[in-house]
Amino acid sequence: MTMKLNLESSTQIIKGALALGKELNTPPLTVAVLDEGGHLKAFARQDEASIMRIDIAIAKARGAIGMGMSSRVLCDVASERPAFMSALTTMAHGNLVPVPGGVLIRNEEDKIIGAVGITGDTSDIDEQCALAGIESACFRAHA
Description:
The protein is an alpha+beta fold.
């Protein structure tokens, strides 16, 4: 049976991500889980996370799902082709942040079923927390 990204599994992704954040003693994190259509499934903003973190987390995930690649890969694209990334960000109405922390969620058939975006610490730590969250819900992470 194919696992689906539903509210329960999306909430587990958030719990798993925040658990690693607690273990790593990160600053307050903000986590957004989007389905394959880019729609918000679940969201959490830890106490004292700054207000811009909401938009950043969603944009990391939306960029990943929209382009079919992690925001880490988008970061590489931005370095290699800055004019393309500028145009892409404009077309996405700013809903794309090309730094690590936006990770694709795949099911057991390797189909993209969503993405998670995390912000609050360094981009590398954000990505580590996203990977941990996805794996805690028994999905495959693709950074």
